[in-house]
């Protein structure tokens, strides 16, 4: 059986275009919310460890649902999956836009996540099977260009909306666009796929949900409850136990929901490890910077969004360039250089002060984004290139699952470090200030000002220490990048029986 894409078959550009527009609006929605987090915290009277659930909860749903996408891609048509995904995303957007309490907002975000979880793996699988390996770098590069345009305009657009309207307008703005995309998909996408006689393994789905849900919930709760809380370490241990059971079941299943045998291909396993590390480090900037710029520095939401604009544009412009370079020189050189940049710039973010200039922040963020553009797509594409065609659904599902899980763990870990270290520094600074003020009688106004100064300095130290941990995570990815080799597609799956029966052939 032929496992490679035939070069004389024209890729389905119409289908890809509709899928990309849907993915674009999902990406735009994510980047819109980052700048709005401080405003949501103030309006709904919640703290950083609570508001981060809007990010972590989104990833939690993705982490639970994405393992099922390999099954869904094989069983259902692209049209049906796209329409289901956009329906869920649209309903979630309407719900979040009408939220007056945090629980309703979080529910809307999770519905959005359920749609996004289906949409991205479907698009990636269509891209992989539509282009031969020698053209895949360029194709993925232009795919990255379109998707990176969302983070290019997202923060700035969000900042402008927040300054002039209520944060709920972010969702009201997305709703009509999502409805139009849903209607276009309904009329333009055609059902061209035969039905596959597959059944979802409900036991595997339950194990997967408890595994990824437990791990992510535990990490996400650490910021507010502390690492010594039974609710934190208990759910993490429960998640790990069920993850082991889930992996064992998948390895022994004739029709695995998520085929862990993709990790028998060394370049895929390596790319997965690098991508997970980069994701954990990357979310430090996305979540911590808005808190630093708006809460500590008093920078307006609009200016905080503009700060991220040059870096996002740079990522978008560089995406097709790195795609072409990947086709010519492979992924190792790009990954090593890109990760070196990420390590240095992330370390620079761990040295922030209350006087760090606005232009310095723009420069660091922009150069860091350049490094990201050299790593994410080339590393991921190189790993997927080694897989046989029949394992693409499992490879894309595995990549998306691990990226969401690592991103959520990274977000929760870094926020908990920031929160816990901030509290520690507040205690230390307060004690030191009281000892210095012993014997004097400061006024109430002086005491209030001193308390405010302590909170700001302690929060800054917490943010810097979180960025320092993110630097260490980036160093791990940098070391792994030296082991990258150009991947050649395997002629047939390592476990032929498992994959063939999983596709219904």
Compact overview of the structure:
This is DHA2 family efflux MFS transporter permease subunit. This protein has 505 residues and is mainly α.
Task: Describe the protein in words.
Keywords: Cell membrane, Membrane, Transmembrane, Transmembrane helix, Transport. It comes from Mesobacillus zeae. Residues 15-489 form the Major facilitator superfamily (MFS) profile domain. One of its GO terms (cellular component) is plasma membrane. This is DHA2 family efflux MFS transporter permease subunit. 79% of the residues lie in helices and 0% in strands. The chain folds into 2 domains: 13-189 and 253-434 and 444-502, MFS general substrate transporter like domains (Growth Hormone, Chain: A); 202-252. The chain is globular and about 80 Å long. The model is unreliable at 1-8 and 493-505 (pLDDT under 50). The protein has 505 residues and is mainly α. It has helices at residues 13-44, 48-51, 53-65, 69-75, 78-97, 102-130, 133-164, 169-188, 202-225, 230-252, 266-296, 301-329, 332-349, 358-385, 392-436, 444-481, 496-502. Helix 5 (78-97) runs antiparallel to helix 6 and helix 11 (266-296) packs antiparallel against helix 16 (444-481). The protein is built from 17 helices and no strands.
């Amino acid at each position: 059986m032929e496992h490679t894409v035939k070069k004389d078959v024209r890729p389905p550009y119409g289908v890809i275009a509709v899928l990309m527009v849907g993915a674009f609006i999902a990406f735009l929605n994510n980047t819109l919310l980052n700048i709005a987090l401080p405003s949501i915290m103030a309006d709904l009277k919640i703290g950083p460890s609570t508001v981060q659930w809007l990010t972590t909860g989104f990833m939690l749903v993705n982490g639970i649902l994405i393992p099922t996408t390999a099954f869904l891609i094989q069983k259902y048509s692209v049209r049906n999956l796209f329409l289901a995904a956009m329906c869920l995303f649209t309903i979630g957007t309407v719900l979040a836009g009408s939220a007056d309490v945090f629980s309703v907002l979080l529910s809307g975000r999770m519905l959005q996540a359920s749609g996004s979880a289906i949409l991205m793996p479907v698009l990636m699988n269509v891209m992989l099977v539509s282009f031969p390996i020698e053209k895949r770098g360029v194709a993925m590069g232009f795919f990255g260009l379109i998707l990176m345009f969302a983070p290019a305009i997202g923060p700035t657009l969000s900042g402008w909306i927040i300054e002039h309207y209520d944060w709920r307008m972010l969702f009201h703005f997305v709703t009509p666009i999502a409805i139009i995309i849903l209607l276009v998909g309904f009329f333009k996408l055609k059902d061209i796929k035969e039905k596959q006689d597959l059944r979802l393994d409900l036991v595997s789905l339950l194990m997967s949900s408890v595994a990824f849900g437990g791990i992510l919930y535990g990490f996400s709760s650490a910021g507010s409850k502390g690492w010594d809380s039974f609710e934190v370490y208990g759910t993490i241990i429960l998640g790990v136990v069920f993850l082991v059971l889930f992996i064992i079941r998948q390895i022994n299943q004739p029709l695995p929901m998520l085929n862990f045998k993709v990790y028998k291909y060394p370049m895929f396993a390596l790319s997965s490890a690098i991508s997970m590390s980069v994701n954990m480090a990357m979310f430090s900037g996305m979540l911590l910077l808005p808190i630093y710029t708006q809460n500590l520095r008093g920078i307006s939401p609009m200016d905080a969004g503009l700060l991220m604009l040059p870096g996002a544009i740079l990522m978008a412009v560089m995406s097709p360039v790195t795609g072409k370079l990947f086709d010519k020189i492979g992924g190792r050189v790009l990954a090593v250089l890109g990760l070196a940049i990420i390590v240095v710039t992330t370390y620079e973010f761990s040295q922030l002060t209350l006087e760090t200039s606005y232009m310095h922040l723009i420069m660091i963020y922009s150069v860091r984004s350049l490094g990201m553009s050299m790593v994410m797509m080339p590393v991921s594409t190189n790993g997927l290139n080694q897989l046989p065609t029949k394992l693409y659904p499992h490879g894309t599902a595995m990549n998306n699952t691990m990226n969401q899980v690592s991103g959520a763990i990274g977000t929760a870990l870094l926020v908990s470090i920031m929160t816990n270290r901030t509290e520690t520094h507040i205690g230390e600074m307060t004690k030191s200030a009281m000892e210095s003020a012993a014997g004097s009688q400061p006024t109430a106004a002086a005491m209030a000002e001193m308390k405010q100064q302590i909170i700001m300095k302690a929060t800054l130290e917490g943010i810097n220490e979180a960025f320092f941990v993110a630097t260490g995570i980036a160093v791990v990815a940098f070391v792994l990048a030296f082991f990258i080799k150009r991947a050649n597609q395997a002629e047939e799956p390592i476990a032929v029986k498992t994959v063939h029966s999983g596709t219904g052939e």
